[in-house]
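Practice problem: predict the structure.
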Amino acid sequence: QVQLVESGGGLVHPGGSLRLSCAASGFTLDYYAIGWFRQAPGKEREGVSCISSGDDSTYYMEGRFTISRDSAKNTVYLQMNSLKPEDTAVYYCARSPGSLCYPNYWSYGVWGQGTQVTVSS
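Answer:
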C-alpha cells in the first residue's frame, strides 16, 4: 500500500525549531520528488518546499526551512527554524507523479494525513 505518514509537529514558541518527518511505505522515495505543503484555517493550501528526484534539487518558499532526504530510511525531512506565528498550519507531504517538483498542490497524487504545527507564546 502506497502511503506517506508525517510526524514531528507540535506546539513551539516563536523563534523555535521543529523537524518534520515524512515516512514512505509501499514505494521508494528516491524515485519521486516530494513536496511539503501547509494549510492554515481559512486559507488555501500552499507549497513550502520540495526536493526533486535524481539530482535532489531543492526549492523553498521560506529561507528558514531546509528539506532533505534519507534514502536508507525512505524518509524526507523538513527542518524549520526561527518559526513564526504565521507558520501555524497543518503540514502535509506529498508525492509528485515523477521526479520533478511542481508549485501547485493539485499536481501531487499521494498525500499524508498531515501534522499540526502551532507557533505560539
